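Work Package 3 (structural annotation) set out to generate three-dimensional models for the target panel prioritized at the project kickoff. During this period the team completed the workflow that converts sequence records into discrete structure tokens, so that structures can be stored uniformly alongside our sequence database. As a representative example, we reproduce one entry of 518 residues exactly as it appears in the project archive.
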Amino acid sequence: MVIWVVAISIVSASLGILPARWFGLKAVLILLIALMTVSYVGVIWYKSMLVLRGAREPARRGSLRTLEEVSAARYTILVPLYKEAAVLSQLIMNLQSINYPHDKLQVLVLVEDDDLETITALGAIALPNYFEIVLVPESFPRTKPKACNVGLEHANGEFCVIYDAEDRPDPDQLWQALDAFARAPRKVVCVQAELQYFNPSTNVLTRWFAAEYALNFSLMLPGLTRSGAPVPLGGTSNHFRTAILRELGGWDGFNVTEDADLGIWIARAGLQVEMIDSVTWEEANSKPGNWIRQRSRWIKGYLQTYLVHMRHPITLGRQLGVRNFWSFQCMVGGTPLTLLVNPVFWLLTVAYVGFGQHWVSAVFPTPVLYLGVFSMIVGNLLTLWFQMAACMKRGLYPSVKWLLAVPAYWVLMSMAAFKALGQLLNPRLRHHWEKTTHGLVADEHAIMSVPLYGAGQETPTAQIAPMISVPAQRGPSGGEYLLPVAQTRTTVHVLLPAQGERRSTRPLDAEAVGEGAV
């Protein structure tokens, strides 16, 4: 919005609507800095209010009522994989540890058809009969949401959830989600589990990362749900009513932060998200290069989400309402904005300290300067305090002292933001999915064994299973896939992603999202 205001002002000056002398280079710089400062303060204020509201009461936790009280609905688990052979065995064991009737469970393992490494690893594992392998034919875009849309086409559960390759969900999480859906109004179409890291103490980077996650999932997102505001969902452990998810159009296959985007579409339809007090454990990125690839993708997705929804701001404002429109500006637009403008303010601060006031006073009028100083001091202290409070709430006591060096983490975040902006401006990289490498650190609390093909027999467990042919649907040329599977009872599907995917912006009737409680 800052860019829009400046652009409108310059056009107005060029058309004679406003005096041109108001919009020379100096005036434009003053206007830009003033708008960035005001926006920055607004984002800090709003997020502070969310954190305080999120700290008031715990997230919804079900009573885990017996099967007689909550019937086991049909549930689909979507597991998108790409080059995840290193963590595949652990993932299968984590999924098998979920406490849910197997006859009511469908696990769809979504694998790119050219990912021979993961396909071969799947062939060496004895999969249960409620697992199904879905081969995703190569097509553009090559993203996680595109694969999830393919899986959604085959999902037969009344409810569905996404888990990533490194996830270890609470065994009772599906029951917790069902209980939350049963207690919530019908307009609640998604419940988000809390995400935590199983390796917060690997190094200083994982300590900072874990503190950020603690703040986001323990305080920030609960504050959003209690405010009835749009919730940028986490990328995993989102539980949905499947029918409503289909009505919403699934995920945007071109958005590299599809979770946040879908949360906004849910709000635009007049529907809601709730948090549940159930944890999914993930691996915190412990290598800076890998971390920057992951974070730049997240920020690029936020930028994509903001630009897509702001194509028609009046329509967006009408659907969300004034309060939630402001929330969208702060959470989706403000997050990447603050990361991009931080280096600008840092450089101006260095210039002020190193070269004297006259270097910045020309573009920093006194009111803006005071507001900027207030933002720098109070905003940084609040952010530090909130992260420390979140660490204390999660029991991450050893990480608290490392937060005194967290400005170095903010520098990394701004580096990732500028990388994201560069990719967004490059048509070839605009929808490129930066792959995150998993399995860098072992989960010490997880089950570390999985049945392999040939286990208990003389055949070595590392031997690749027999190949079976699966008909392909690649058009007139035909062809076939050769997929190693450990048990012939494992179903293999070949599905094409939907072509020309479009999403309707028509708000669904929150009172008519379907009947039949859990």
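The two ends are 42 Å apart (CA to CA).
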